[in-house]
Amino acid sequence: MGRARAGSARRPRRDSAAASSPAGGSRRRRGKAASGPPAGPEARAEPPGPGDFDLGAQSGRWAAFQERHRLSCEEAARLLLDAYEYRGLVKHTGGCHCGAIRFEVWASADLHVFNCNCSICTKKQNRHFIVPASRFKLLKGADNLTTYTFNTHCAQHTFCKTCGVQSFYTPRSNPDGYGIAPHCLDDGTVQTIVTEDINGKEWEKAVKEHKTIRDMSKP
Questions:
Q1: Residue 172 burial (CB count, 10 A)
Q2: What is the pLDDT of residues 93-127, one digit of tens each?
Q3: Which of 31, 60, 102, 177 lies 20 to 30 Å from 15 when distance is taken between CA atoms?
Q4: Which pLDDT tens digit goes with each residue over 123-178?
Q5: Where would I find the H helices in the chain?
Q6: CA–CA separation, 136 and 52 (whole Å)
Q7: Which residues make Cβ contacts (< 8 Å) with residue 37, sequence separation at least 6?
């Protein structure tokens, strides 16, 4: 094991901004392509901007939806994307013991929880389920988090400065996601919990042989 260290918290990643969509019946701009040398292999297509989307027959519904709910283009697009991407998921809420840390996370009501036996997970009973970063949102307490790392310093063991509870962290197996403690969720949204033991004492071998753990932080 390497030398352990504690430090200031790595701020949890925020959801990426939702793509903007236009209201009304805007049409794609059409015209002759500008003359010039052909694009090279490193040229990248520019993302569509406002006015580039063709809503077709749905343009009237889109405009009426925005007006009825008083939503901006971005807000309406985010609502639509969330409804599509989070199908079959429920919004869980949770936090630490003292209430300084609060979060929400979109996940199944039937949780698949890992029970790792590595040195630190054994010490703090770090049972957790893994979600993509885009499905986690810290509601309050970013300034009240601190972080402990050790050995490879890949895992970010974040915990509350006041009560010491780790309600979520960034696992070494999925640095692009979050590990959420099911016992720190509020009552009422979890239906079942299935626990899988993982041999963290031989971490590299266990993760390499596991068929799905690396994919759990992928949207």
A1: 19
A2: 999 999 999 999 999 999 999 999 999 999 999 99
A3: 60
A4: 999 999 999 999 999 999 999 999 998 888 888 999 999 999 999 999 988 899 99
A5: 59-69, 73-85, 119-124, 203-209
A6: 30
A7: none
